[in-house]
Structures are given as C-alpha cells and as structure tokens.
Write a structure and sequence with these properties.
It is built from 2 helices and no strands. By secondary structure, the protein is mainly α. The longest helix has 67 residues. The termini are far apart.
C-alpha cells in the first residue's frame, strides 16, 4: 500500500519534474505540525495546572471560612455565657 504523496511523487518524477522542493515542503509541514501539537499540549498542561490550582485555592478558602465561622460561633457563645453569668 502506497501513500498518496508517494504515488504523486512517482508520477511527477516520471514526468521529469524536480521533487526535491516537495520533500523540503513536506519536512516543513511536518515540523510545523509537530510544533503546533507541542504548543497545544503545553497550552493544555497550563490550563490543567490553572484549574487544579484554582480547585485547591477554593478548597482552602472553604476550609478557612468554615474555621472562621466556627471560631466566631465559639466567641459569641463564650460572650453570651459571660453576659448570663453577670446577670
């Protein structure tokens, strides 16, 4: 089984056309495709890192808010007990 590029190159060579520029162009396109693929992979990794960091920050914010709320409740309870004792 032959690729369409290979068949086209054979046909062009049989017609006497120079195919060296096609090889160069093919290499350039392959390199561009590889670089684009790497760029998408890097972008994907950046987005995943951003989302994971955001998730951890939201989790910590939730934990801190819960701790603050519990502390505030204990503080209010303590003050209410002191007010009742002074009456």
């Amino acid at each position: 089984m032959c690729s369409s590029t290979f068949i086209q190159r054979q046909y062009a060579e049989q017609m006497g056309l120079n195919t060296s520029s096609v090889d160069l162009l093919t290499q350039i396109i392959q390199r561009m495709a590889e670089e684009i693929s790497r760029a998408f992979e890097m972008q994907n990794n950046i987005v995943q890192t951003f989302l994971e960091t955001s998730r951890q920050n939201i989790k910590r914010l939730n934990e801190n808010t819960t701790m603050y709320t519990e502390w505030q409740k204990k503080f209010i309870d303590f003050n209410m007990n002191n007010v009742q004792k002074t009456k």
